[in-house]
Amino acid sequence: MEERSTMMHRDMPPLLITWLTILSIASCQSVCPARCLCYLNQIPRTIECSRQGLQTFPENISDIVEHLDLSSNFLTGITDKINRLTELQYLNLAKNQLTSLPNNLEELINLRRLDLSDNIIANTADIASINQLPSLKVLYISKNQLLDLKGLTSEVLQAVDAGHCLIKELGNASLNGLPGLTTLNLAGNPLKIIQTPVSRTLRWLDMSDCVLNYLYPDTLSGLPELEELRLVNNPTLVYSTRHLTLQHPKLKRLDVSRCNLDRPGLHGFPSLTNAYLSHNTIRILPDRIFAKNKQLMHLYLNANSLERLNASTFEDLMKLQTLDLSANNLEDVPAMTFQENIDLRLLNLSYNSLHRFPNFLSFVTSLDLSFNLISRFNANSLENMPRIRSLNLRSNQLQLLPSGLKSKTLKVLDVQKNRLVELHNNSFVELPSLQKIDLSGNRLTEAMDPDIFEHNLDLTVIRLEDNPWRCDCTQLYDTFEYLTVPVSKTVGSSLICQSPANVSGYSWEAACFDAWNTDLYYNKDRTWGMVMVSLLILVVLCGSVVSIKHTMRIKRRVLEQRRQLELSEERERLRLLHARRNHRLEEEIEDLENSAEPRINPLELIGPPSYEEAVHMPRLVHSMDALNEISVEDGILRPMSSVDNLRMKKRRTRRTKTNRKRTQSEDDLLRREERRQERIRRERNNSSGNICETIDQTQNTISRNSRVSTTRRFRRHSIVEESLESSSSKDRPKPQTPNTKKKKRRQMFRDEHVTDDEASDVQIMNFNRSIIIRELRREPRSGYRDSFVNKRES
């Protein structure tokens, strides 16, 4: 069986073994602790429980966790259960209330970093169990209440951060328990005395922000491997006197900034490469003061009180690369000060009181002379700097750049915030390698001639902003074209006009847009421009004509439709009117046919008289022109006006009557018929037998003629209706009313008979009262004309 199981394991594929391993690990995992974030699927596997207000060590922490963060809680102790976290590499217990560690930490064999900073640990004996951690490399115990480092033991510990504790002394035996220590931070402690600490492996020591007073020459003798020492911000520190100074043969980096030193005191460090002496009170640098620091490469003497430099101050510094002398009180630099610093790259002389460009010999590649009082310099000022590449003259008082400034290596020239008012045409001719020039913040007003930079073929950046430009568009065009075409050398929006007032505050491009576009495009493309404008105008005109025609066509169509609609409505209305009138005429004809009463009085005649009736009618006394207005009084016929007046009135009456409606209403006919019958009854009672016979004959004749007159009237109405259809509704005459009839002039005549036949003495009717002769409507000339006179038998 054992052999069979062994064979099965041998035949099992590697992928399956990997999955089984993962499943076995997952089976050992526990649930993620409450109020914690678990990232167990990433590398390193992390659980974060910081700032959760935990007071006890959380349970159910996964066994495979590698980084555990329990910082910023209220933990007061750690139990032995932490030993099950065998995979743990980093444990953060900072900002808690721990006073000690568990006595047994043997199972944490992979722990490399332990952070116990910002707790209340008062003695190193309370954390002595760290010596059980075989892989511990870094220990953070800063911001605790430790008074000393004695008792802290670890064979493998390499870095200890004990800053901002209560350590006042670093004795001989303070580091004896840390044989592998290489880095020690004691910054921020009330450290005052150092009694030759011993550590064969220590290389980095920081005692900044302490209260160190005096360091003896042999203070660092117990630290043979020390390479970097930081003593920043120890205001009362003294480590060098006129005859003695702190010594260390292997120290390479020393930072004693902000220590109130009055001398460098570096001659005890022959291997020194970096020296930071800034923000002290050093006033004088004697000759060859750095002669024993032949390895010095970076020297910072900025923010001191240096007033002058000697010609041999930096002699023998053959490897010096960086020299910072900024923020001092230097007014001049001797010409031979930097002649032996053949590797010098950066020389910073900014924030001094230099009044003229220093004419010294140097192999510097970058020279910073900004924030000085330099007002002028010569064209040959750069000839003694054969390697110069960058020259910073920012914030000086230059009014004019020298003509023919010479340098074959200069690439960057910064002269911003000076007082330059113009540029010479040959200012940059002898600078063939120039790549960048900064002229911003000056007093340039006139446009530059692009020919100034014709020899600077590598020039790519020209800064010209913050200048009081006077925008003469004609002069600025060439400059703007050079700066923006084909490759932009400046930001176009940064070029702002100050004058004239109408464009103040505008950019060059905005202020001169119209002028430049006219010059650029109109002269060159005038023909095409005219063609395009003409085509555009033609298209607009054609479109306008088409749209106007279309609009008029639509309007005509709408008017035609409206006219057709009105005409159809008018025809329909006339048809209804015609039908209604035909119906009334038919009824009138029927009434006349049914009427058997004779028609005696000619005043009651409706149609034209027959021949027999006309023979018995009275004769006209005057001509037809006087029939309109005639009065009969005392048996004498009298005209009311002259013949001419009668004719004029006849014409006016005829014109008026032709416009009136030729038909009468049904009510008028009924009233006329009633009056006629009433007269007939009266006449029957008063007339004689002869007259009765004559009346009988007359009625028979009227009955016959009534039919003819009715037919003629029907025809006349048809003609009138056809004329109404052809004419507008506004031309139709108004119907005749009783009021209009009353307005007609009337004629009075007496009971006297006159006929056309003078031989006739037959008296038809005798009237004892005057009768109003009414003027009947006139008919067309082709018909008959009704008139009323006294009847006489012819």
Features:
about 800 residues, alpha/beta, 20-stranded mixed sheet, two-stranded parallel ribbon, disordered N terminus
Q: Could you walk me through the main structural features you see in this protein, from its secondary elements to its overall organization?
A:
By secondary structure, the protein is an alpha/beta fold. Among the domains are: 29-145, Ribonuclease Inhibitor (Leucine-rich repeat, LRR (right-handed beta-alpha superhelix)), CATH 3.80.10.10; 595-773, no CATH class. Helices cover 26% and strands 10% of the residues. The chain contains eleven helices and 28 strands. It has helices at residues 2-11, 14-28, 473-484, 508-511, 513-522, 526-594, 611-616, 643-659, 666-686, 689-726, 738-742; strands spanning 37-39, 46-48, 67-69, 90-92, 113-115, 138-140, 159-161, 169-170, 183-185, 193-194, 204-206, 228-230, 253-255, 274-276, 298-300, 322-324, 346-348, 366-368, 390-392, 412-414, 436-438, 461-463, 469-470, 497-499, 630-633, 636-639, 747-749, 771-773. The strands form five sheets. The protein has a 20-stranded mixed sheet, with no helix packed on it. Helix 6 (526-594) runs antiparallel to helix 10. The longest helix is centred in the last third of the chain and has 69 residues, at 526-594. It starts with a helix and ends in a 21-residue tail after the last strand.
